[in-house]
Amino acid sequence: MCKDFGGDPVMLKAIAPGLFVVTMKLFFLNYMTQSEFTVEAIEHDTNVLKSRVLQSNCIQATMSHRKFEHPRHGSLGFLPRKRASRHRGKGLLLPTVEGRMHKIEGLSKDDPTKPCRLTAFLGYKAGMTHIIRKMKGLKQKKAHLMEIQVNGGDVAKKVDYAYSFFEKQIPIDAVFQKDEMIDIIGVTKGKGYEGVVTRWGVTRLPRKTHRGLRKVACIGAWHPARVSFTVARAGQNGYHHRTEMNKKIYKLGKAGQESHSAMTEFDRTEKDITPMGGFPHYGVVKDDYLLIKGCCVGPKKRVVTLRQTLLNQTSRVALEEIKLKFVDTSSKFGHGRFQTTQEKAKFFGRLKA
């Protein structure tokens, strides 16, 4: 009901044209009763009213394609989702005298005008976003071997550069530098055989569905008389070979130097990079390490390949100089209240003998 006319109430129809006509008359009479009357004000209110009427009628455009309305679950670019043949960086098999050696397929482009340098490195995942070069106490007896490309200079300079590392440990700073963008190649955590809901993220069927609801209802038409590879099916999940790109190096620690500790310019507390109690399922970091931004593939102690980026980095994030102010070394079990054992002992005081 609308009683703003000053006379008898007027019934407003539910349909949009009738509502628009009656409301227009209402606005016109209201402006006639006011002292200030302008045509521009009526035109402005008319446009506002038209937009409100369109919104009230919920006029929506239909979708142009099914993929916008109900996109598929899971990317087809990572098929087949099966177990990786090796949990190192995938490479080409090259025969050698002592056995097999792997070569990384994708490496940065060689530039003879620049000095010689290595393009990749092997490391072990420690925990959080820390990656180190060496890990003792592993049960595996077979060494991880990989052929790595040497960039820069002519052939003679490359041979001399590689010969200089014979029977020596290659330091981490010979390959990477702080604030550099790198790629990580490895194999993800294995999950085993899992269903379509977990593996592909499809929607569960209604509760009363016969013979299970964590399934795909329709796996295809009668003809072609086969199941398409694009249909979500149960199978192996995890332990897939993946390459994560653009990981920025926040800190590079050298064993036996101050850079190996967790001290910064703003936090001068003497503490090691290893958190209290060690990294869960890993232990104590004793050798060179990299502190990177982001996640890292695989479980703890899994070997990963660190590679120089293949892209020309021009973004502000890639070129930014990082200054760490604080490195958290609290325990990774529990709440993690203290940064060092001395801080914990000072807080609790002397305990009973």
Instruction: Kindly state the number of beta strands.
Output: 13
Helix tally equals 7
Strand arrangement in the largest pleated sheet: 4-5-12-11-8-13
Question: What best-fitting shape do the alpha-carbon axes yield?
Answer: globular
Q: How many angstroms separate the termini?
A: 84 Å
Q: By helix and strand content, what is the structural category? A: alpha+beta
CATH superfamily of the largest domain: Translation factors
Helix content bin? 10-25%
Overall mean pLDDT score? Answer: 79
Spell the H/E element sequence: HHHEEEEEEEHEEHEEEEHH
Share in β-strands: 15-25%
Task: Walk me through this protein's architecture.
With 353 residues, this protein is of the alpha+beta class. The protein has two domains: 1-60, no CATH class; 106-190 and 238-348, Beta Barrel (Elongation Factor Tu (Ef-tu), domain 3), CATH 2.40.30. Helix content is 19%, strand content 19%. The protein is built from seven helices and 13 strands. It has helices at residues 16-33, 39-56, 66-69, 155-163, 196-200, 316-319, 341-348; strands at 91-95, 100-104, 117-118, 120-127, 130-132, 146-147, 150-151, 181-187, 190-194, 235-238, 241-253, 289-292, 303-308. Strands 4-5-12-11-8-13 form a six-stranded antiparallel β-barrel. α1 (16-33) packs antiparallel against α2. The longest helix is centred in the N-terminal third of the chain and has 18 residues, at 16-33.
Q: Quick gist of this model?
A:
The chain has helices spanning 16-33, 39-56, 66-69, 155-163, 196-200, 316-319, 341-348; strands spanning 91-95, 100-104, 117-118, 120-127, 130-132, 146-147, 150-151, 181-187, 190-194, 235-238, 241-253, 289-292, 303-308. With 353 residues, the protein is α+β, with helices and mostly antiparallel strands.
